[in-house]
Amino acid sequence: MSRPKKMLPILGQTPEPEQAAPDPEADGCADDCCSGVAAEASASTPATRQKNPEVPEGGPVGGGFEKTVVRVEGMDCASCAATVERRVAALPGVRRATVNFAAGRLDAEHDVGLPTGEIEGAVRAAGYGVAKTGEAEGPPFWRTPRAISVLASGLLFAVGLALSLGFLGAPELARVGVFLAAIVVGGLPIFRAAVVGLRARHLDMNVLMSAAVVGAAAIGQWAEAASVVVLFAAGNALQVYAIDRTRGAVRALARLAPDEVLVERGGSEVVVPAEEVAVGETVIIRPGERLAVDGEVVEGSSAVDEAPVTGESVPVEKGVGDAVYSGSLNGQGGMLVRATKRAGDSTLQRISRLVEEAQAKKAPAEQFVDRFSRIYTPVVVAAAVALAVVPPLFGAGFGEWFYRALALLIIACPCALVISTPVTVVSGIGAASRRGILIKGGVALEAAGRLRALAFDKTGTLTEGRPVVSRVVTLGAHPEAEALRLAAALERRSEHPLAHAILTAADGSRLPAVTGFRSVAGRGAEGEIGEARYLIGSRRLFEERGVPLAPAEAALSEVEQAGETPVILGGEEGVLAVFGLADAVRPEAKATLESLRSAGVDDLVMLTGDAEAPARRIADGLGISYRARLLPEQKVEAVRDLVAKHGSAGMVGDGINDAPALAASSVGFAMGAAGTDVALETADVALMQDDLTRLAEAVRLARASERIIRQNVLVSIAIKGVFVLLAPFGLVALWLAVLADMGTSIAVTLNGLRLFRRVNT
Question: 724, CA 20 to 30 Å: which among 302, 304, 366, 592?
Fold first, then answer.
């Protein structure tokens, strides 16, 4: 069935994020369990503001509101994000607070004049940090406060175990003191986050773990309480380290463009901040420098590495008139570039923002998991309470059943289950962006992974969008090479695409001089070569000049039936040759279609507005079905028919002319979207480079993501189910419950990260 109609955001605006986003390196929420995974944003300004002249409903008379963006550190679960949202939303004057979980970003809409410091203070009061301007890359993971506290807690726990075995003849008080120290050192962030969660009325994993630790200590199980803290803190630290790797693509992307550039102003060269470069200014690009803005080369030439934008690993030659993109690395040549966009609106920055937003959009599988967890957690918590209360009422030992209840309480939060889908979505989208494939969220990723049918625009997608000479049929004594030479000589002065195709076919030939050249509008051209006069052009030109076409009818019929455009060359003695010109099929098209079939996309169809004959020629050559002479609205109907037949169907086009069909498809793919605003905004998947092989890569990546999501969800549910069944029978120790919970979370995280290795190999 078809998806809801896409609403295209206004260019330059940031769409409201659907979900919150974490960043794990602070002391706030200590787990990744209660939803999603992070994609850390670059450390930019702690807060940026944007005035909005509109007066929202209920706003101050004659006033308006501002939007403040704050980079939040220390979140590693959606519950953390919800806590920040509630804390900031409670501030007087704040109208709405939304946290993008995947980007670690808070968007707060508030009355004009509310100090930024108050918003940042609310974030810190919730237990999280705020990224500072120009903040450098943090220390290695093992030197972070989180890792150090985990190591110290683990060492104290080991000492406590040694004392428990009777080493050194230490008294019981010393053993309890060491375990208590391990609990405090490793558990302080957990307990603090639990307090914040309780104040926000959130029953997250920090609350459940804290309750288990306090409960175990209350019944004298100090070793068990310490083991819960150490294993939980260590598991979170490892998971945070693994998750942080998924953030590298976006973080590195945002840092590629330089902060300062050399520009020409007032006849001199000056260094200015990149954000101060205005559209139309000339930027000086020296050898080995990265570009800070999008622009057009006005002087010089060089080979430019565009991998950050297009994913193309081979440097591209750039000369006067060519477009260049922010973040690209200049080679050995110098260039002058006229800025065509401000630094903040560059293709690189737009890609970075779109990837950041895409990683926060929930996939259908994640929505299912969210619904499941909203039922699962309260039910298991209620079962744990019943397990602690009901058996003792009938004479059973309180300590034993309370211990079993604590084990069940630890299992109550579906950590691995809730993290299983978003970690894969974030990993898949981040990995794709490194190859020049922009996937706009989990919905698009899953839809691409389930495709069974794919429709293609013809011109510029399956073909190169330019005519080439595909056949030469000669008549009389002139050989093929001689006919091409004469035709190219006549066409040398013409700017028509068909003329360019003939000149290209005769490349390398020495062309004779033409005198008395005259272009005949809409018909062709004529001129004298040597002593003879020649014509080249359409059937109509020859009919008007009275040149008999009867001897060439068989050749013309052969060319037209093949779906090619005939161009006739003739002279006083009659027709000399008929050239068949046709749009060239992309060299990689056939291999791409075969790769798509091997990936399970069986129904491939070409949709075109071209006539029947050229459409049939292309489709037969590629081995796919086709529909010709389609108006734009008929393309939409054709896509809807495919969706109805297969349940889902994709559309591949240029993102501009094919926008209605792209929007009607289950997932729309835009080719060559680098620098194209409409393509970036319209398509679900934007292939930055104009390379059809990227389409097969995108589908294979989406297929792999879907498989991993399914694996993660099944494994998480299975392990949780087993431990929920075993805990009431006393077969699960607290440390084993924590180990199973965190171990599964780490396992699904690492499984999701396999997408990075898949795309990089």
Answer: 366
